[in-house]
Amino acid sequence: MKVAVFGGTGFVGNYIISELLNNGYEINTLVRSGSEHKLESASECNIVNGNIDDMDAVEEVIKNSDVIIYNIGVIREFKSKDITFEKLHYEGAKSTIDLAKKYNINRYLMMSANGTCPNGTGYQITKYKAEVYLKNNIQNWTIISPSLIFGDSNGKKEFCIELKKNMLSLPFPAPAFFPGINFLSAGKFKMSPIHVTDVAKIFVKSIEDSYAFKKCFKLGGDDYNWKEIINIISSAYGKNKLIVPAPAFGVKMVALFLDRFEWFPISVDQISMLLEGNVCDSKYLFNKYNISPIEFNSKQLTYLNNE
């Protein structure tokens, strides 16, 4: 069976491709020219060079495939570089869905995110729009919506690595954000970290399982609040980081002017989504697919010592 993979060169995409290969699938994938080195299993894939807005290249990837996995996504926009949520989350997905219909491909798996909604941040809205378009146009869809994904990224962007680099390695206390003026609520929002290996396994196990058709799987492990996450990440590389309350309003005001620059560590939308929290329970899926989830703890984060 041939699987068309979009977004295979990134952190999660490489794990998905590895899991597909381990299970005997043949892979057609779109890779930007010059980015072949980012695809760790490049020699085992059928590569088509091009961007997601190159319709000829996208069609070449899809036309000889049986299944489509759409895993393209960004957490921040940089409009000056044409990196936008609308283009990558919605328009790119829409074009692959339209081509799936043209070639009568009825199996389509989409990487989305826990917490999408029609009236949230730009990230949440465009992910939600892509979900709706998929549901309305493909017969056997599956939407996979993780909370925080962690794991060794082999040098690619990953939440714990970015948090260490942009916040925890600085010679300042770590901020525990809080909304409004109630500093007692600082850092109490929660997330459900899930290891990237477990995400990849569920993607692949879902492909031929009719139970997964027309389902949205929310993926997460145990719940941890922000302070606990910072402590676990810091202890993984031998640090004891001081955490202090930080009013979200003030940080948002600074981010409003600076988040268009890549060197600024966080965007306004990211702060808003952090404060919402991001939790879910996937125990039923782990049981169904016989997966023993990898726990979020300092032993599983030793890769941070290399970053």
Task: Describe what this molecule looks like in 3D.
The chain is of the alpha/beta class and 307 residues long. It has 2 domains: 2-151 and 192-219, 3-Layer(aba) Sandwich (Rossmann fold); 159-191 and 223-278 and 294-306. The protein has 10 helices and 13 strands. The chain has helices at 11-22, 55-62, 85-102, 122-137, 159-168, 196-206, 226-236, 248-258, 268-276, 283-288, and strands spanning 2-6, 26-31, 46-49, 67-70, 107-111, 140-146, 149-150, 174-178, 190-191, 194-195, 215-219, 224-225, 243-247. The strands form 4 sheets. A 7-stranded parallel beta sheet has the order 3-2-1-4-5-6-11, with helices on both faces. It is globular. It starts with a strand and ends in a 19-residue tail after the last helix. The relative contact order is 0.13. The model has no long low-confidence stretch (mean pLDDT 95).
Indicate the topology.
Layout: E1 2-6, H1 11-22, E2 26-31, E3 46-49, H2 55-62, E4 67-70, H3 85-102, E5 107-111, H4 122-137, E6 140-146, E7 149-150, H5 159-168, E8 174-178, E9 190-191, E10 194-195, H6 196-206, E11 215-219, E12 224-225, H7 226-236, E13 243-247, H8 248-258, H9 268-276, H10 283-288
Helix pairs in contact: 1-6, 2-3, 3-4, 8-9
Brief account:
By secondary structure, the chain is α/β, with parallel strands linked by helices.
Comma- or semicolon-separated keywords:
307 residues, 36% helix, single chain, seven-stranded parallel sheet, alpha/beta, 2 domains, two-stranded parallel ribbon, globular, Rossmann fold
